[in-house]
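Researcher: Next sequence.
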Amino acid sequence: MALPVEGETIQIHSYKHNGRIHRIWQETMVLKGTKNVVIGANEKTLVTESDGRTWLTREPSICYFHAEHWFNIICMLREDGVYYYCNMSSPFVYDNNSLKYIDYDLDVKVFPDMSYTLLDEDEYEEHKKMMEYPEVIDKILKRNVAKLISWIQQRRGPFAPDFIEVWTNRYHLNREIQGEK
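Model: Next structure:
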């Protein structure tokens, strides 16, 4: 299996359970690429929605994807602190220069003070019926919501105090190196 390489630019493709594309981020720079973890960064990247609408991300973000956990974490670097948008999703796969996952509607928004809120429970229930999510998926997702919340409370993974500094420094270093080419 091919792996993303540090410094390369990849796309991120989000799908729904029915196989339809949900959203595409055009350019994310890989900061770490292993078979289990991909950490990337993007800033003012073009995002295309399933209906063709496009928009640009507003702030620099560090993105964390794992091949074993059913969530991914977007760390948005804003003037008043780091906000985290956590998508309950399938583990990622890397294929054809794109990181791909299935978005399962439930989201957890984490604020700079590490308070958090669970979002889109109604959308999850609606899509669960419409797309016939298997019971096993429902159980996995609920277990992973609990795991994600424990990471937030324990300051693990992207919520660790030094995570943002380490990966934003790596991002700036990679941009400098690419600028010298």
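Model: The first helix runs from residue 121 to 130. Residues 17 and 133 are 8 Å apart (CA to CA).
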